Amino acid sequence: MDRILKGSIDSFIENTRHKHRGSQTVGEYHPSHIPYCMRRVWYDFKIGREFPIEVKRKMEAGKVIHSWMDGVFKSDGKITVLETEITKERGIGGLKFKGTCDFIVEADGQKAIIDIKSTSWLKSQIEKGQDLKDHHITQVMVYSWMFDIPTAYLLYIDRSDLTTSCHKVEFDKNEFEGILRRTTTLDAHLTENTLPEAEGKLDKDRNWECKNCPYSVECENNKMEVKE
């Protein structure tokens, strides 16, 4: 029985098709595309490998956390859940953004976006004062623009013991314009088939992005021939 149970779980997770960064259509970008190493995202579009089983497990665990938080909001009664898992598209300047927002809620007459991040590192990062991540701020900034809701909250939840931290993020026009410039650069590299710089490798503060990158061999060799 134990072997059957484990096999059923592993089979379900393995058959869940998660490709890196969601949509792979050039000109259509998910908010999570934008802040990461541009070369890695370029390979995501050109190759689009599936996540390994270890990453899929974490993603499925994240779905469990999302469902749990839906129950928390509804049982508490102080926060009204208006919508969950809402997918929207919005275009600007020849670009199209497409993304799925975790929650749109209302409390004290104010609407807000809630973006949940399930992690395994939260407690140690809280101790260092580093639990709020810039790449997550970029994502929710795009969501705020897409849904015309200027206030968002990043809610971090540790998968091990449900430790939480919460950060308010207000829409900033200047920061969003920088996001658009970055997205335009990515779009140009994809459209013109030119390889971007390996930001994760060149910037020591971003070396963590290389740790589990599925394109490390291609990146090391500056590979352009990416058909699989």
Question: Features of this protein?
Answer:
228 residues, alpha/beta, Lambda Exonuclease, Chain A, 6 strands
Q: What do you see in this structure?
A:
The chain is α/β, with parallel strands linked by helices and 228 residues long. It has a single domain, classed as Lambda Exonuclease, Chain A. The protein has 8 helices and 6 strands, in the order αβααβββααββααα.
Q: Give the helix tally.
A: 8
Rg of Cα set: 19 Å
**What's the shape?**
globular
Determine the fraction of residues in helical runs and give it as a percent range. 40-55%
Mean pLDDT: 86
Number of strands: 6
Task: Report the β-strand fraction as a percent range.
Answer: 15-25%
CATH overall fold name: Lambda Exonuclease, Chain A
As an assembly, this protein is single chain
- In CATH terms, what is the architecture? Alpha-Beta Complex
| H/E series | HEHHEEEHHEEHHH
- Please give the alpha-carbon distance between the first and last residues: 38 Å
Low-confidence runs: 18-23
- The SS-based structural class is alpha/beta
Main CATH class: Alpha Beta
Number of domains: 1
Largest sheet: 6 strands, mixed
Short description:
With 228 residues, the protein is of the alpha/beta class.
Write the layout of secondary structure elements.
Blueprint: H1 2-14, E1 28-29, H2 38-46, H3 53-76, E2 80-92, E3 95-107, E4 110-119, H4 122-128, H5 134-147, E5 151-158, E6 164-170, H6 173-192, H7 199-202, H8 216-220
